[in-house]
């Protein structure tokens, strides 16, 4: 079993020497020191390669080193000297590897050869690309189109994504679940209803004009560290930053830029949050309801005193819809209920509202702490309501800023990766490629899981990612996976999804983005879209990990050629030989955003897509920005009334990228040596009569006939609100019932899972 965890509260700033030490450690451990010069020269630089870690914006005027500790880690792990080749697979059976940790699996390094699962020996064996595609193609031809799922994780380029969605549609379905179904799908559902666009409105340059930042449920120091540069600059103008997070995440507290010699030498950090509030998990609707209520009270007062109004009445009148109903709901909600649900006092919420009211232009930043709840959509829409009250959308320095996950997850949606037929220009595709695209909605991630559990799926193609490990309901999903006829995983490293096999299983190894990709027409570039809707080119600079790798566009093209009837309008092989041709296709199908695409590849800072809400054009049902009424004050499945039921947030540590675990150091939270921990408020622990540091079993607090538990979690007394627990993802995924997802978006509700603690 795993080691015991240690906990020493971390009082150092984010960034600073701690991040430099971690960088040195990981570059050495992955034997990737030789990649350092390119990291400084090319990483996130125009003409270089775009980081494969988070999706945060890449500035037009980059810092000398435009990478963070975690981006560097991702790169060292991509460019590691370790290899997982046929000899490795010859030494280990799949049953044995199923006992390995996520860390141990990926730490073996890069996959080098295409591999096929051999049931007789229970091992993966080398297979030629030709044989692999022939068998996969023949199997795909034998299934009904609805029984195949084309999953995609958010790292692959716009070119790969475009080809992949066309493959699915030519095959005959819209079964294109994407990692974003587990992530910001809530954003993609909530924002169009409110402001008529599925993405954020904030551009990097807006930070220079903002007068206040509100942050909800995002862990900047770990998950988008380069955003700290903008936050630091904002703080140097003395702009307030108001943070709501059940945990005091170090990144929101204090930062030293490793780029600044003076700050490094004097060890003098920038304070980030000026006000930090710790609501209960799932308490944000109530938090924002309280702030809105306070704003109405301030506005009443300003009216009485004949001062400037607190509400932007002109904006509300000209640009919004539904204000009166919203006002009625807010005024009618009782302060006591609000404080109870939020886990914060009325005074605290009035104080936060006052800071907001005093600022002219406000940016609201958020992450998984808002999206991954039953009422995640209401969370996001409530944040929009708050912005609309003071006209904080569609002006410089103001707007909504969802911090996206994978480096191209937003872009994949932009070029047609969606299970929702209405969101995709199918008519344009039908005309250009002369076929009849499927018009029925496909399966999203949760629905794909449901259909796999129902035995309705024959084939699963995973273009990147670690689906089995990332989804909820681990035990049932792993068991059901074995009923698939075909499981194909396009991957860079070995992970658990490769080991939970179907009847026929393949691992198809591919290049990583920083690697040189040479095709028939010469070296290729690929493109991605960042969190702020800017499109960047990425040029590989490193030698590929193995000569047997195929690029993702090649793999998609070969799959298509093996599985589909030839179509003269879709020259797969030419496209895979020259990605500029794919960009021409993207420009033809999505002319608005991608006109003249191939000539705009190396714009410093990327070129932004045109987002109507940025210009106060509202493409909603009413033609206005809509105030949307929240359905309840609690965002979670369980209102937390039963004293033994606690709400579990499943989180990332500072030493992981999703299911890729880099190590056991959650440095910024002071937790080391093990990930099998549970952060708990000492009062809860004592109330439940459990000893300090005890190991416990955590069980899902639901009564649906399915037992779900995770054993051997070590309790750590932590600064966390009563009633809220925190543990790590993916270890705790076994506790999340598949049916606990966000209303409307179906994003698994991974942030307020009702659980009970039992003695281990
Ligand atoms: N280094 C690194 N970078 C990453 C990733 C990674 O794993 N590692 N993952 C990438 C991906 S795919 C994504 S989606 C993003 C995820 O980045 P984040 O959105 O930061 O996601 P989480 O790590 O899940 O952390 C969510 C934060 O929300 C807080 N929170 C939880 N519940 C609530 C709540 O009810 N209310 C409030 N107000 N706060 C809450 C948690 O304490 C935590 O600080 O990061 C991306 N970037
Ligand atoms: N409980 C809980 N569950 C969650 C979350 C949570 O907060 N809590 N977060 C959810 C979120 S936000 C997300 S986005 C999902 C993540 O779900 P996924 O995107 O499916 O998972 P990752 O861990 O990002 O995938 C890692 C694997 O991708 C492969 N890979 C890496 N780079 C490349 C590449 O360039 N090409 C290809 N083809 N493969 C590559 C490697 O083999 C690696 O093992 O998990 C979700 N699950
Ligand atoms: Mo994500």
Commentary on this structure:
The structure is a single chain. The protein is of the alpha/beta class and 760 residues long. The protein contains 30 helices and 34 strands. Strands 6-5-18-17-16-7 form a six-stranded mixed beta sheet. A six-stranded mixed beta sheet has the order 30-32-31-34-25-33. The model has no long low-confidence stretch (mean pLDDT 96). It binds ligand MGD (2 copies) and molybdenum atom.
Brief write-up:
α8 (158-171) packs parallel to α26 (552-563) and α13 (284-305) packs antiparallel against α16 (335-342). The chain contains 30 helices and 34 strands. It is 34% helix and 17% strand.
Features:
760 residues, alpha/beta, Barwin-like endoglucanases, 6-stranded mixed β-sheet, 34% helix, binds ligand MGD, binds molybdenum atom
Task: Produce the secondary structure layout.
Layout: E1 6-7, E2 14-15, H1 16-29, H2 36-42, H3 69-78, E3 83-84, H4 86-91, H5 94-97, H6 102-106, E4 110-111, E5 115-118, E6 123-126, H7 129-142, E7 148-152, H8 158-171, H9 185-195, E8 212-216, H10 220-223, H11 227-236, E9 241-244, E10 254-256, H12 261-266, E11 270-271, E12 275-277, H13 284-305, H14 313-319, E13 320-321, H15 323-332, H16 335-342, H17 346-358, E14 362-366, H18 368-371, H19 376-389, E15 399-402, H20 409-414, H21 426-433, H22 445-453, E16 459-463, H23 467-470, H24 474-481, E17 486-491, H25 496-499, E18 504-509, E19 518-519, E20 522-523, E21 525-529, E22 534-539, H26 552-563, H27 572-577, H28 579-589, H29 591-594, E23 607-608, E24 625-626, E25 646-651, E26 656-657, E27 660-661, E28 665-666, E29 671-672, E30 677-680, H30 682-687, E31 695-700, E32 709-717, E33 724-728, E34 753-759
Parallel strand pairs: 2-10, 3-4, 7-16, 8-9, 8-14, 9-12, 13-24, 14-15, 16-17, 17-18, 25-33, 30-32
Antiparallel strand pairs: 1-29, 5-6, 5-18, 10-11, 19-20, 21-22, 22-23, 25-34, 26-27, 28-29, 31-32, 31-34
Molybdenum atom binds at residues 179, 183, 405-406.
């Amino acid at each position: 079993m795993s080691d015991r965890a240690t906990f020493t509260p971390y009082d150092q700033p984010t960034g600073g020497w701690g991040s430099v030490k971690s960088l040195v450690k990981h570059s050495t451990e992955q034997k990737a020191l030789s990649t350092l010069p390119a990291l400084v020269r090319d990483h996130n630089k125009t003409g270089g390669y775009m980081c494969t870690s988070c999706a945060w914006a890449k500035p037009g005027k980059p810092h000398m080193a435009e990478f963070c500790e975690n981006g560097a880690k991702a790169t060292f792990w991509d460019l590691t000297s370790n290899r997982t080749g046929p000899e490795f697979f010859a030494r280990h059976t799949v049953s044995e590897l199923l006992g390995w940790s996520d860390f141990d699996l990926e730490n073996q390094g890069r996959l080098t050869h295409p591999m096929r699962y051999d049931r007789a020996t229970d091992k993966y064996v080398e297979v030629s690309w030709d044989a692999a595609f022939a068998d996969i193609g023949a199997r795909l031809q034998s299934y009904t189109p609805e029984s195949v799922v084309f999953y995609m994780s958010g790292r692959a380029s716009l070119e790969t994504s475009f080809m992949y969605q066309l493959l699915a549609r030519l095959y005959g379905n819209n079964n294109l679940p994407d990692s974003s179904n587990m992530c910001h799908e809530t954003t993609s559902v909530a924002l169009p209803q409110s402001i008529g666009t599925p993405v954020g409105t904030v551009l990097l340059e807006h930070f220079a004009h903002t007068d206040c930042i509100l942050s909800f449920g995002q862990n900047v120091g770990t998950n988008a560290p380069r955003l700290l540069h903008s936050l630091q600059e904002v703080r140097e103008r003395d702009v307030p930053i108001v943070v709501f997070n059940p945990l005091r995440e170090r990144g929101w507290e204090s930062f030293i830029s490793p780029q600044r010699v003076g700050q490094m030498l004097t060890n003098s950090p920038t304070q980030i949050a000026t006000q930090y509030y710790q609501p209960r998990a799932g308490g944000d609707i109530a938090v924002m309801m309280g702030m809105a209520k306070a704003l109405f009270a301030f506005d009443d007062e300003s009216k009485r005193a004949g001062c400037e109004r607190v509400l932007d009445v002109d904006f509300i009148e000209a640009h919004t819809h539904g204000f009166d109903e919203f006002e009625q709901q807010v005024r009618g909600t009782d302060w006591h209920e609000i404080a109870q649900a939020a886990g914060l006092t009325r005074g605290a919420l009035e104080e936060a509202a006052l800071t907001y009211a005093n600022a002219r232009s406000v940016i609201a930043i958020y992450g998984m702490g808002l999206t991954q709840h039953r009422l995640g959509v209401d969370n996001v829409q409530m944040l929009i309501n708050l912005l609309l009250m003071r006209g904080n959308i569609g002006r410089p320095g103001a707007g909504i800023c969802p911090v996206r996950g994978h480096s191209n997850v937003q872009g994949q949606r932009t070029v047609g990766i969606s299970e929702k037929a209405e969101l995709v220009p199918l008519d344009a595709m039908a005309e250009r490629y002369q076929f009849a695209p499927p018009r029925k909605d496909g399966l999203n991630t949760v629905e794909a899981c449901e259909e796999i559990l129902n035995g309705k799926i024959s084939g699963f193609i995973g273009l990147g990612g670690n689906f089995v490990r990332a989804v909820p309901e681990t035990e049932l999903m792993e068991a059901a996976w074995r009923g698939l006829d075909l499981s194909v995983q396009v991957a860079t490293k070995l992970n658990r999804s490769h080991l939970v096999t179907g009847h026929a299983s393949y691992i198809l190894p591919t290049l990583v983005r920083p690697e040189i990709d040479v095709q028939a027409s010469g070296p290729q570039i690929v493109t991605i879209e960042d969190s702020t809707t800017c499109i960047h080119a990425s040029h590989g600079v490193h030698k590929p990990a193995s000569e047997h790798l195929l690029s993702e566009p090649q793999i998609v093209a070969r799959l298509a050629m093996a599985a589909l009837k030839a179509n003269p309008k879709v020259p797969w092989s030419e496209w895979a030989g020259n990605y500029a041709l794919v960009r021409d296709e993207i420009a033809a199908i999505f002319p608005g955003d991608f006109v003249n695409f191939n000539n705009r590849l190396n714009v410093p800072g990327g070129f932004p897509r045109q987002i109507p809400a940025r210009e106060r054009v509202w493409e909603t049902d009413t033609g206005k920005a809509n105030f949307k009424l929240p359905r309840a004050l609690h965002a979670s499945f369980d209102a937390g009334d039963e004293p033994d039921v606690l709400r579990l947030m499943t989180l990332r540590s500072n030493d992981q990228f999703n299911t890729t675990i880099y190590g056991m150091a959650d440095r910024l939270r002071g937790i080391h040596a093990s990930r099998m921990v549970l952060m708990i408020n000492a009062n809860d622990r004592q109330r439940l009569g459990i000893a300090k540091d005890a190991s416990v079993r955590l069980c899902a607090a639901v009564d649906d006939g399915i037992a779900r538990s995770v054993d051997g979690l070590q309790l750590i007394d932590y600064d966390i609100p009563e009633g809220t627990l925190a543990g790590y993802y993916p270890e705790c995924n076994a506790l999340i019932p598949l049916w606990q997802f966000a209303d409307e978006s179906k994003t698994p509700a991974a942030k307020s899972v009702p659980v009970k603690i039992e003695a281990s």
